[in-house]
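Here is one chain, start to finish.
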Amino acid sequence: MTSATLKDPEVKSATSATPLQPATAAPGSTLRVAIVEDDLSQAELLSHWLELAGHHCHHYDRGEGLLRALDQESFDVLVLDWNLPDISGVDVLKRIRASQQASLPILFVTARNREDDVVMALRQGADDYMVKPVRRLELIARLEAIARRGKHQNEQPEVLELDVYRVDCQTRTVTRQQRPVELTAKDFDLSVLFLRNVGRLLSRGHIRESVWGPNAVVTSRTLDTHVSRIRNKLGLTPENGWRLAAVYRYGYRLEQLDVAIPRSPRNEEH
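Its structure:
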């Protein structure tokens, strides 16, 4: 692979004396992005652009490295090159589509510009395809678009209403059955993350970054304590029709049950 993109005017602006100004992502709109690219300069450029747009990026220079990471990590979207040193981007795509993360939105960013290559990638399950050199704003727009489609929504609403819960992201308040729930700032952010991703398996790393930020040092015990606290405060338990469960060596998933499961009398608190 070459570094031809680095000659593009967009790249010069990203590294000049007057750098691009970072964007502030809307509440709940920050994406956790995996980038599979063996050319370090290309990966740094893509990460730079996406981080300026308010997203968090993780770089892998091998396809197998990304596939191993997916055993323990979750992402909102994947940026994938075709020509990798170990396996092809199409092979990565096929294996993801056959895995538990089959719904992960995938954007190909590659130098391969033949029509049959584009068609092959899309037919194998890619959500979009861009040919290098790419333009910064178009890349960001396409990536955010496929992430929205993956979440089956056009935008992140300021007010989220789900079952007995109402979350107002502007006032940062949560009510359950029209009664206010007292939450700390981090517990609120954690509640929003789970309620916006019902049914989705979120890795511990994903949760940490989304709630505490990419550079925060948060122990597993701290994370577990916060999860336990919002489970209790929001009543996310089977008898209320919800399950917020840990998945061994991975993370957590919030599920809405078809039927509430009554608590056994012997487990009732007196």
